[in-house]
């Protein structure tokens, strides 16, 4: 496939490769589940007597449940096709998925596949594409990537969630939660006022910035909890924070980048994956240390003392060695990285990790 064509299909192929690795969530590329994330359920054009709307209270409840199930409980879809272990994962992940759905707005934009399915003569210019599932003689379920109730709820809870996490971490400024509640009510009313069940508001695309902010807040909250759990295990088993950070926490923190970089490289974009290997740590070090250090120095008015431990010194030597070697070796090989270079990087990591563990073990024994 030519490079231009391959790049043109990159986004769709990458999204498909990543989404289909999920065990508990259904495939978004399945025509039956294109609407996942936000859904507007509408029943129309009933031509068969067997497809009349239910008249009993239980039937109406089940009909509503089927409509909201893909939005708030997507892990329960295709229940009969799941294995017992995947069913266990699907049930245990319900609380987390529900919290994310209630607080995290997701803006689904139009893509080429949706445009090819929709008849342009039957669609308004300002309306999101409608995907029709089923034949003309059956019940027509219209999914247009928009759920008014879900977005209204998200606009109410997202500011409150953000303010609660930030004030809890700072241990002050709890009155900001009241202001966040007022802001959330205002945003919900705006969404409710300028939207309908079929059409989102004109500023629907701007909600992606709210989703980005809420996603960062979730990452911050989960990272703090993971660190606390690791510190608790360290205290129980007598393992220092340095060893936990160099081994378990480092692997867990980089696992997502590892999977994403390998996927991108196998799809034929090795330069992008290689750049991400350097860009990710660079972003963490410069922005993470820079922003937090600037905030603390501005708040306290004193510089932050930094103590270089032996394990940190060994890690710094390992990083500098790999960077200097890459500057020399990679250009000499015509910017081609072979298998030997990969084994060299793995060897440097193993050596640094073993040396750090030995240093920590010897230090802990000398302290006792």
Automatic annotation (TrEMBL):
Keyword Membrane tagged: yes
Alphabetized PANTHER family for the sequence: MITOCHONDRIAL SODIUM_CALCIUM EXCHANGER PROTEIN, NA+/CA2+ K+ INDEPENDENT EXCHANGER
Example GO BP: intracellular calcium ion homeostasis
Broad class of where this protein is predominantly found: membrane
Highest taxon in the source lineage: Eukaryota
Sodium/calcium exchanger membrane region domain ranges (all copies): 209-356
Organism, as annotated: Mortierella alpina (Oleaginous fungus)
Gene Ontology molecular function: monoatomic cation transmembrane transporter activity
Cell compartment(s), UniProt: Membrane
Keyword vocabulary terms for this entry: Membrane, Transmembrane, Transmembrane helix, Transport
Any one GO CC term of the record: membrane
Membrane topology classification: Multi-pass membrane protein
Name of this chain's protein: Sodium/calcium exchanger membrane region domain-containing protein
Family designation: Belongs to the Ca(2+):cation antiporter (CaCA) (TC 2.A.19) family.
Segments crossing the lipid bilayer: 85-107, 173-191, 203-223, 272-296, 308-329, 341-359
């Amino acid at each position: 496939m030519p490079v231009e064509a391959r790049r043109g299909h990159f986004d769709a192929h990458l999204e498909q490769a990543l989404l289909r690795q999920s065990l508990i969530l259904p495939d978004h590329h399945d025509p039956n589940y294109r609407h996942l994330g936000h859904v507007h359920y509408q029943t129309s054009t009933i031509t068969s007597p067997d497809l009349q709307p239910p008249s009993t209270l239980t039937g109406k409840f089940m009909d509503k449940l089927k409509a909201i199930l893909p939005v708030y409980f997507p892990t329960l879809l295709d229940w009969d096709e799941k294995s017992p272990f995947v069913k266990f994962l699907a049930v245990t992940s319900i609380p987390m998925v529900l919290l994310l759905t209630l607080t995290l707005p997701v803006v689904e934009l139009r893509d080429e596949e949706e445009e090819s399915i929709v008849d342009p003569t039957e669609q308004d210019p300002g309306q999101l594409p409608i995907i029709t599932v089923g034949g003309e003689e059956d019940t027509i379920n219209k999914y247009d990537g928009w759920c008014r109730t879900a977005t209204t709820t998200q606009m109410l809870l997202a500011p409150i969630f953000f303010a609660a996490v930030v004030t809890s971490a700072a241990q002050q400024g709890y009155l900001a939660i009241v202001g966040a509640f007022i802001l959330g009510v205002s945003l919900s009313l705006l969404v409710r006022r300028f939207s309908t069940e079929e059409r989102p508001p004109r500023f629907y695309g701007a909600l992606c910035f709210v989703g980005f902010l809420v996603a960062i807040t979730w990452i911050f909250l989960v990272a703090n909890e993971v660190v606390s759990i690791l510190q608790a295990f360290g205290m129980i088993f007598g393992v220092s924070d340095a060893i936990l950070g160099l081994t378990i926490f480092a692997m867990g923190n980089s696992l997502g980048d590892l999977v994403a970089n390998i996927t991108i490289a196998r799809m034929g974009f090795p330069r992008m994956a290689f750049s991400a290997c350097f860009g990710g740590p660079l972003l963490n070090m410069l922005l993470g240390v820079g922003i937090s250090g600037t905030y603390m120095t501005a708040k306290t008015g004193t510089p932050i003392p930094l103590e270089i431990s032996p394990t940190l010194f060994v890690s710094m030597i390992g990083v500098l060695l790999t960077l200097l070697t890459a500057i020399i070796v990679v250009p000499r090989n015509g910017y081609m990285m072979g298998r030997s270079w990969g084994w060299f990087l793995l060897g440097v990591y193993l050596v640094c990790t073993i040396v750090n563990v030995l240093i920590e073990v010897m230090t802990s024994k000398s302290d006792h």
